Amino acid sequence: MIDAKILVVDDNKSVLSALEILLQFEYKSVQTLFNPNQISSFPKLEEIDIVLLDMNFSAGVNTGNEGLFWLNEIKKKSPNTSVILMTAYGAVDLAVSALKQGAADFILKPWNNERLMATVKSAYELRKSKQEIRKLKKKESNLKQVINEGKNAIIGNSKALTSVLTLVKKVAKTDVNVLITGENGTGKELIAREVHRLSARKDEVFIGVDMGSIAENLFESELFGHLKGSFTDAKEDRVGKFEAAHQGSLFLDEMGNLSLQMQAKLLSAIQNKSIVRVGSNKQIAVDIRLICATNCNLEQMVTDGLFREDLLYRINTIHIEVPPLREREGDILILADFFLKQFAGKYDKPGLRTNHAAQEKLLDYQWPGNIRELQHTMERAVILSEGDVLKPSDFLIHPKPLHEMGSSAVTLDDMEQQMIAKALEQNDGNYSAAAEQLGISRQTLYNKLKKKQS
Q: Does pTM surpass 0.70?
């Protein structure tokens, strides 16, 4: 027996009795109404799966308008209920009108029992399909919310940060491609997420990809997907990042690490607004908001022949430069306090605070690793703290005033390589641990070391 609730509405009691007898052996619940005016007050109408509704109730009237009226009333109260209209006066235009207004089907009296049962079953399957679609859409919406939530905490009120956020608000309203540049650890991904959050695509997914971690032989598979059997390890069809981000935003980080061959493949997908899965010849259209990021000087790389000029033009419609932490006056202590509270809660050390001398030490430091370095510094201090107050000695940094460094004493690359060397030393040469400490992928660490050797 099918677990469904059916309501029959007809002013002919013989029809009600006949349909009740016919349907009760197949369906769990069959109820009847003699007066259509009772539809408006029918209890829990939204729980009814199928309504069999007569189209004419007044004597001498056969226009079907009464049935269409009550069809609309049912749809107002229970839009997902399947309604089958019944009439002894069949006409093509009447059937078309009924279907246009939301009826699931149309039955002529007198009916054929087998055909009527088949019609009711089809209407029930339609109802179930709609329910499944609603569940899937709700699940998808919840999943997108979980993916996107809690990752847009941009902390600070400095003039440099405010200027960037003002530009972000202007850019987010459009659908142009955005290039975000800045030193390592400045929060480029947070800015990308903010662009997405303020855009018309905010309810769709935000997909982030670390381009520096993708091996060249897997580049097309990762970004464009593949078909089962297209290569040795392709054991099933796979959707690439471009398809996964359809109607949402695609964030491509570490753009400066792409080889010229990978750049060419990426340019083709961006220009054509479509991709082809590995092992397929079928073009798949993709609608994405493209946001790219790098800590490299792409213009210099173009001059050096390391980056395609046409690709730079494609991704660089709007350029957002994220300021380093040392230029965000006033934000260092705000961020430090934010991370302190976060990690004090995580490691069950409530009431922890920093004293004035420790704050001065944090302000004197130049933070070559920017916000990421500050975050790791605060976490380490909280973990190792023994009292309720963090002192200068709890922070394993060595401030060096900028005027002592000289304007050309050290380059950004030099500072980066020093940080890498120090991380490797602290982790006994363990590349994975060093990469985790630096907040980058193992592949990105390899790429930076390779860049140094070349």
A: no
